[in-house]
Design goal:
Radius of gyration: 21 Å
Largest sheet: none
Helix content: 55-70%
Order of helices and strands: HHHHHHHHHHHHHHHHHHH
Structural class: mainly alpha
Number of helices: 19
Length: 386
């Protein structure tokens, strides 16, 4: 996020910086003074695992809503009693099928998170309701290829409306809407993958970076209202995202492929800020790689652990990706291996919304990496097979 230069007085809202306005992303500088707590700020960045350790609550105490589900329901704008059967079908499909698929942890609390509580909260927050319907539509498109175009149009419509409302609400996050905002941020991850056709390699800025920027909103909400989220129905999800086991890297094969990125991406010509951004991104990728490898050895799902990495990326690293700097692109290529590993569960069931994405991202990367850097794509290419 670029630094805004406008002067402001007491009780005035910060201006929105030009870069964030151009990218159509939430500008955390526009929050009231002292409210910004986005990832990457500070000496080492606000990593998600640090946020969920509980220390963040000491810095930014959160107002906990008395009862989330006593808030007023949304009011229908329909002037007749005609039913929208398509939307009813989408809601039924989400509650009975998609919600159970999203519950990576098979405990009753994890299943109720999406099947019961998120749906109920959706009736009180328009953006979350639209996100639920969008995810359901894209899942039906995956299940019924013969009707893919039809469901994709429906899903894209709900997704667009939900995103607009989400971005308008995010600058006003508080103790009454933070749960819905964070739940929608999680659905953004699903929509980021499910809404792409993956027909051919495309520019990463339009397909990947836009969603990476939006995911920063999840960490902003988490950092500002950790205690309220941690003590709510979202606890199983946050516990799973925060779970880190200290394990020696040498235990797992291919770890050296991640550690050698420190040498590949280290150049004396880099400015200190870029060098630090690469270093932090590789450290975070190594930590994610170890956790994913550990889960794979146990035969457990790795999707949620894999998605922790893009949430933790610093603003500077995202800028380097947007500039198509070779070092940043090579790091992203190695992350594609983790996406590929998450495509298939231990029971050989496909994770529907990321099927084919690893190969698609790697093909897009090959199109833009300079010839001198192509050799550093050999390991990701060897790991991501047909």
């Amino acid at each position: 996020m670029a630094v805004a230069s406008a002067r402001y007085g007491c009780n005035e809202q910060h201006p929105t910086c030009n870069n964030c306005e151009r990218r159509q992303i939430f500008c955390d500088f526009s929050l009231s003074p002292g409210a910004s707590n986005s990832p990457g700020n500070g000496e080492h960045g606000q990593q998600l695992e640090r946020s969920t350790s509980g220390s963040i609550s000491q810095r930014t105490p959160s107002q906990v809503a008395a009862d989330l589900f006593k808030q007023p329901d949304l009011v229908s704008t329909k002037s007749t009693t005609d039913l929208d059967v398509t939307d009813l079908r989408l809601m039924h499909h989400f509650s009975s099928v998609v919600a159970l698929d999203l519950a990576n942890d098979r405990t009753p609390e994890a299943r109720a998170l999406w099947q019961v509580h998120a749906v109920e909260l959706g009736f009180k927050h328009h953006f979350l309701l639209r996100g639920i319907l969008a995810v359901s539509a894209f899942h039906l498109a995956f299940l019924h290829p013969e009707r893919m175009a039809e469901y994709a149009v429906i899903g894209s419509s709900h997704q667009s409306i939900g995103l607009n409302d989400f971005q308008a609400t995010l600058p006003h996050v508080n103790g009454t809407n933070c749960h819905a905002l964070f739940a929608f941020s999680c659905l953004i991850i699903v929509l980021a993958f499910a809404s792409s056709t993956k027909a051919k390699a495309r520019d990463l800025n339009s397909e990947v970076l836009h969603w990476f920027y939006l995911l920063r909103g999840a960490n902003i909400v988490l950092n500002m209202h950790f205690e309220a989220l941690r003590s709510s129905f979202l606890k199983p999800l946050l516990d799973e995202m925060a779970h880190i086991e200290n394990t020696a890297a040498y235990r797992f094969p291919h770890t050296e492929q991640i550690t050698k990125l420190f040498r590949i991406c280290n150049s004396k010509e880099q400015d200190p800020e870029s060098a630090q951004a690469y270093d932090l991104a590789i450290h975070s990728l190594l930590s994610t790689f170890i956790q994913v490898s550990l889960l794979r050895d146990r035969g457990e799902g790795t999707v949620l652990a894999t998605f922790v990495w893009p949430i933790n990326l610093s603003p500077r690293f995202l800028d380097l990706l947007e500039e198509k700097q070779p070092e940043a692109i090579i790091i992203l290529a190695h992350y594609c291996v983790l996406i590929y590993w998450s495509e298939t569960t231990d029971s050989n069931e496909k994770t529907w919304f990321i099927v084919g994405w690893a190969k698609y991202m790697l093909e897009s990367i090959r199109e833009i990496v300079p010839e001198a850097w192509q050799e550093h794509l050999e390991w990701p290419q060897a790991m991501i097979v047909e």
